[in-house]
């Protein structure tokens, strides 16, 4: 039985396709980091956040300095997106940081995190300690 051997060009083409897919995957992961950390029209800051894959669940840590604890709203939308919204105890102004181009005050936080795998919305557990919010949610 005769079996045709793959040409070097076919192998090279497959490698290029794998590389293209990997670049697309990494680019989509970096989209969050390319956007500004604020929305001046909404007077809203985007807090720093870290997502850890713990195997059977995700752990999301969100930094919320000056947060008004009674206004925090954390929920899973659909089965792949975590949303965190909260108001600040006091407004933060750009001018305090030496930025003089525009006077802007920020009064709230908003963060949207998309998970790479579906999660169980009803499994969401939240803790808050000294402005650090930790949310855990199980994978489906």
Number of helices: 1
Helix proportion of residues, in percent?
10-25%
Number of domains in the coordinates?
Answer: 1
pLDDT below 50 for ≥5 consecutive residues: which ranges? none
**Sequence of strands across the biggest β-sheet:** 1-2-7-6-5
Straight-line distance between termini: 46 Å
Under the CATH scheme, the architecture is Sandwich
Query: Would you state the CATH class?
Result: Mainly Beta
Helix/strand-derived category reads alpha+beta
Strand element count? 9
Task: Based on Cα principal axes, name the global outline.
Answer: elongated
Report the β-strand fraction as a percent range. 35-45%
Mean pLDDT: 87
The rounded Rg comes to 21 Å
CATH topology category name = Immunoglobulin-like
The main β sheet shows up as: 5 strands, mixed
Q: What order do the helices and strands follow? A: HEEEEEEEEE
